[in-house]
Amino acid sequence: MPEPLEREWRPAFRLDVAGVLAPLRRGRGDPTWHSAADGGAIWRTGTTPDGAATLRVHRRTDGTVVAAAWGPGAAWSVEHLPALLGADDDPDSFVAHHPLVEDAARRLPGLRLGATRRVWDVLFPAILEQKVTGTEARRSWRELCRRFGEPAPGPAPDGMRVPPSPERTRAIPDWEWHRAGVDSARRRAILACAAVAHRLEAAADLGGEDGRILLRRVPGIGVWTAAETAQRAWGDADAVSFGDFHIPTVVGWALVGRPLDDAGMLAVLEPYVPQRHRAVRYVELSGFRRPRFGPRYSPKDYRAM
């Protein structure tokens, strides 16, 4: 077994490692993610400009973050460890305009917006989440990673896989997409992105609205998908997931006591520009639960169609 490339990093700020990395996990059973049952190390896999990598991260009691990486992309992964854990983020400039948001910000001082600095690995699963339930999207992600992602480099926990590369994704037969429950519209969007994936990585360098505009040039990539990608790839603090089935309702009930549509959420979040996504993240983690009045949306099994 090859020796890992290791790095120790002592952040100059309070840091909740699990909280920062949590948005990268695509549900229970995500083959690209593993967290120790005792709350210890977090393992994740990914693609890099140099190839596949496995990264293990844990935080010592003295606050030092210890990372180890394996695979061709190991050096790239440890180099970008601070960005992954929110070193480029600026939560101190955030101003709360609602008591619930203010309370969440106070209780979560270690929460920052991390940046993977890799677009493809977060764009692919974001497209899978378009217009379907989370259960459906997570199932498709698991199946595609397990069948078409390479085994995680190094001594990773059993079953971990690297997200399918753009090249491998373009070679997936049509019937395998159907088997994984992916309809034709999402398949076309994923393949369109895979064809220009090397160009889309520039979005992480552009950042902000410019980065989101670059992503939206690809057919099938709209405001919601671009925002979901921006939040993770470059820690975009203002990228709101307009078009989401749940978020406007949750934000509305939490901040003004009634459900909202996208236009209403846009108005309510206006005081938080340019950190609207951070405000939404605090709402989501505040513990607030909106009232439920009807049945949940039923998943649609595209494999049976």
From TrEMBL:
Annotated InterPro entries: Alkylbase_DNA_Glycosylase/TA (IPR051912), DNA_glycosylase (IPR011257)
Region (Disordered): 148-169
GO cellular component, one term: protein-DNA complex
GO biological process assignments: base-excision repair, AP site formation; DNA alkylation repair
Molecular functions per Gene Ontology: alkylated DNA binding; DNA-3-methyladenine glycosylase activity; DNA-7-methylguanine glycosylase activity
UniProt keyword list: DNA damage, DNA repair
Protein name: 3-methyladenine DNA glycosylase/8-oxoguanine DNA glycosylase
